[in-house]
Amino acid sequence: MSWSNWSGSVASTAAVVRPKDEAELAALVRVATTVRAVGAGHSFMPLCASEGQIVSLEDMAGTMVVAPDRMTARIPAGWSIKRLTAALWAEGLALANQGDVNPQSLAGAMATGTHGTGRDLGNLATFARGFRLVGADGEPRWCDATTEPDLFQSQRLSLGLFGIATEIDCAVVPAYHLEERIEKRPWGEVRERFDELVEQQRHVEFWLFPHADFAILKTLEPCVPCEPPTSTSDIEETTFRRLLDVGAFVPALIPSLQRIMMKTNMNGGRRGPAHAIFPSDRTIRFEEMEYELPRAKGLAALDEVVGWIRRKRLPVAFPFEFRVVAGDDIWLSPMNAGPVAAISMHQYARMPWQGLFAEAEAIFRAHGGRPHWAKRHTLSRDDVDLLYPMAERYRAVRRTVDPTGKFLNQHMRELFS
Ligand SMILES: Cc1cc2nc3c(=O)[nH]c(=O)nc-3n(C[C@H](O)[C@H](O)[C@H](O)COP(=O)(O)OP(=O)(O)OC[C@H]3O[C@@H](n4cnc5c(N)ncnc54)[C@H](O)[C@@H]3O)c2cc1C
């Protein structure tokens, strides 16, 4: 059976194997030449493609166990964010933050530094407290901040290089409800007020169509307990899908189509359990690049990219998404130099994206940006060394735990062998 990622841009003819328990997983890793773990396949970079096997933990048996102090839960690593947040909710618990969809596996989301938005909230890898891994020798091992601390540091944002995670101790918080508000506002106003909103709101972000003068502002604030929402999405995608199909056929119409799109009523919102409000349906396939920039440089970088797109009337069909994430101390995290502005650039999957992303990437790099590991980027090994002072120590840990390069694929070999 062949495998492809969510957007359809990465395919692999490698066999996908689905062990039913850890013993079966260990046995197959022991004899494998090369093997890559896959979660929900939501990464845009060729992280899961493999020259040997691809292993999915979807069918693995396992249950969640909440620690007696209720500060962490031990969670089967292959569980989706959707499944684990529902299980946590049943225990009166939640994740402190989530991204904008929830099919990703916990292991996959942590392995790439997946994040939501919020001034004081780190990416999901910062929630990791310990990992049970099947190593390259097929033996299970445990790592946390005190047991094998270098392995733990590397495994927090692992890109699948250090073993196959089967269980993860994850920080959790008491269950809470959220109120979502979506408002269409003039772009100039959102730009001017954004820093103030970041200070005031637990979660704030905006989307900006590059050719339109309005932005879509989204905030999430804790609220009193209420019923689950009736809608599973922040924004209705039907009109957008129609405009995208027209734009893909006649790209020159994209600037006018975006202005038409922004004339429609965008305002809305939902209330409910946090795990039901964070995620939304994303049914339109797109390709994505995301750069994390020092917070103070984010808006200037966005201005420059949008200015370039407008001047050249470039057919960038999707809006930019602008979020904020707290800093952390993870060796390979793009947030490890302090808080960041995360700018996502998307393109409709049916339209060319390579040239557009390449030019925008140069602008983001010039503003001190580092890419999201799961999303499109063209970093070389030298770039990784330049951007990450701990890269060589990360590689040293990898060489120790996987001397034959069992968990490498071509992309990983180029950057980390
Ligand atoms: C529609 C959509 C929305 C998205 N929204 C966001 C967002 O809001 N915020 C954000 O930051 N990102 C977002 N992303 C990116 C996404 O969160 C990341 O690509 C994430 O890694 C996907 O999780 P996954 O389970 O699909 O992992 P995969 O893509 O399947 O794998 C990612 C990495 O994890 C490794 N891995 C997977 N399972 C294991 C395991 N058990 N042990 C060891 N390694 C493992 C893989 O080898 C690979 O290196 C989005 C992507 C899409 C397509």
What proportion strand? Answer: 15-25%
How many strand segments?
A: 20
Whole-Å distance between the termini? 28 Å
Radius of gyration: 21 Å
Strand order of the largest sheet: 16-13-15-14-18-19-17-20
Largest sheet: 8 strands, antiparallel
Helix/sheet category = alpha+beta
Secondary-structure blueprint:
Elements: E1 3-4, E2 11-12, E3 15-17, H1 22-31, E4 35-38, E5 53-56, E6 65-66, E7 72-76, H2 81-90, E8 93-94, H3 106-111, E9 128-134, E10 140-144, H4 149-156, E11 164-171, E12 173-174, E13 177-186, H5 187-200, E14 203-208, E15 214-223, H6 238-249, H7 254-261, E16 268-273, H8 274-277, E17 286-294, H9 298-311, E18 320-325, E19 340-348, H10 354-366, E20 370-371, H11 381-387, H12 391-401, H13 410-416
Parallel strand pairs: 3-5, 4-5
Antiparallel strand pairs: 1-2, 6-7, 7-11, 8-12, 9-10, 9-11, 13-15, 13-16, 14-15, 14-18, 17-19, 17-20, 18-19
Helix pairs in contact: 4-12, 6-7
Flavin-adenine dinucleotide (FAD) is lined by residues 6, 36-43, 47-48, 57, 77-78, 99-101, 104-105, 107-109, 111-112, 114-115, 158-160, 164-165, 282, 372, 374.
